[in-house]
Amino acid sequence: MKIRLLGKTPEELKQIALDCGLPAFTGKQMAQWLYQKRVKSIDEMTNLSKQGREVLKERYEVGVIEPIDVQTSQDGTRKYLFPVTCGSEDSCVEAVMIPDDDRKTLCVSSQAGCKMACKFCMTGRQGFHGNLDAADILSQYFAIKEAGELTNTVFMGMGEPLDNWDQVKRVIEVLTADWGLAWSPKRITLSTIGVLPKLKLFLDECKCHLAVSLHNPFPEERAEMMPVQKAWSETEVIRLLKQYDFTGQRRVSFEYTIFHGWNDTPAHADELIRLLKHLECRVNLIRFHRIPDFPYGPAEREQMEAFRDRLNAGGLTATIRASRGEDIFAACGLLAGKHKEKTL
User: Fold this and answer.
1) What are phi and psi of 3, to 5 degrees?
2) Do the beta carbons of residue 243 and residue 249 sit within 8 Å?
3) Which residues make up the CATH 3.20.20.70 domain(s) of the chain?
4) Is the terminal CB of the chain with fewer CB neighbours within 10 Å at N or C?
5) How far apart, in whole angstroms, are the C-alpha atoms of residue 264 and residue 267?
6) What residues act catalytically?
7) Closest CA relative to residue 32, chosen from 181, 226, 243
8) Per the confidence metrics, is the pTM higher than 0.70?
9) Has residue 344 got a pLDDT over 60?
10) Sign of the CA dihedral 160, 335, 253, 182?
């Protein structure tokens, strides 16, 4: 199997060039072809000598993986299905492109399946099949129709990004480095359920926005649905966050999916207010999308609005997130990476 160049840094590409008997400056040229010109094959790197390209092709390839399926929602959201190199031969992940006026946001996956086993998440029900490498993740940016039009990205697809932090960090470096896509960190949000050791690394090493999946402020209730609570509680996560400054360019938000009869009472709102007091943050309220064999359903719109209003009256900033792509199972908690036998 050939080694993929996608995801390599200029220094790594320089070493690859030297190992292949090519000049050191070839590494910088390869980085430009990969990340600025976004080529799909080594043959397209036309300022490398033909002999040099042939030598590279013996052991290396660009490594962009094309999607094998795409579905378009009535609201314009588009869901792409990608084969990946980890897991079984038929392992796939999904990426979702969400258009909104002049913005195009890509929701990317970082793992095939997920270890965290949240009971209300279709990805979590699959179990864990493997970590995506940087090329697998970057392919979700480079291989889609909207590749050149993306304005923002969220690591909110399949998997827990901080459980694959080494590769996710490498992708963020490609996205933000001058030699890469040169995006501002403000265009990137990483979502986590609170993998505490890696969360500290993220906060120390990265300037991107953070979204924390909370869903219930009471520890015993949260543990019923989110096993991670037993390892790293929400109080520990919030205690860590209060050590950092979110009054500047970097923001932290909390994702709170509302389930009718489980986490939608005034008592839950009041405990959320108490828990997040003195932390500059936003609470995003999310409508739950029904999944099979799950005891709770979505809250009514009036319930969500009352919950939002109580949070805002208590000093928090809370909004109800618009649901996108539900008709193609592209909304929060619905990504499953199902491989469909069809030809595009």
Assistant:
1) -85, 135
2) no
3) 69-328
4) N
5) 8
6) 94, 332
7) 181
8) yes
9) no
10) positive
Tokens of 297: 């359903």
pLDDT in tens, 107-120: 999 999 999 999 99
Q: Quick one: average pLDDT of 196-221? A: 97
Element housing 319 (H / E): strand 317-320
Show Cβ contacts of residue 79 under 8 Å, excluding neighbours closer than 6 positions.
Answer: 70, 71, 72, 73, 94, 95, 96, 97, 325, 328, 329, 330
Q: Alpha-carbon dihedral of residues 194, 191, 135, 34, nearest 10 degrees?
A: -130
pLDDT averaged over every residue in the chain: 94
Q: State the CATH class of domain 69-328.
A: alpha beta
pLDDT tens for 137-163 read 999 999 999 999 999 999 999 999 999
Which pLDDT does position 331 carry in this prediction?
74
* Cα distance between residue 239 and residue 150, in whole Å: 34
- Which residues neighbour 136 within 8 Å (Cβ) at sequence distance 6 or greater? 65, 82, 84, 85, 86, 93
Copy the structure tokens of residue 306: 């009352």
For domain 3-61, which architecture applies?
Orthogonal Bundle (1.10)
The 10s digit of each residue's pLDDT in 170-198 is 999 999 999 999 999 999 999 999 999 99
Rounded average pLDDT over 247-275: 96
Residue 311: band (very low, low, confident or very high) from pLDDT cuts 50, 70, 90:
very high
339: pLDDT confidence band, cut at 50, 70 and 90? low
Q: Which residues 6+ apart lie within 8 Å of 152 measured at CB? A: 103, 104, 105, 106, 187, 188, 189
CA distance 6 to 26: 15
How far does CA 9 lie from the centroid of its chain?
21
Rounded-to-10 torsion of CA 300, 301, 307, 310: -140
Kindly calculate the radius of gyration of the chain based on its CA atoms and give it in whole angstroms. 21
Whole-angstrom distance, CA of residue 228 vs CA of residue 215:
12
For residue 340, the model assigns a pLDDT of 47
Tokens standing for 331? 């909304």
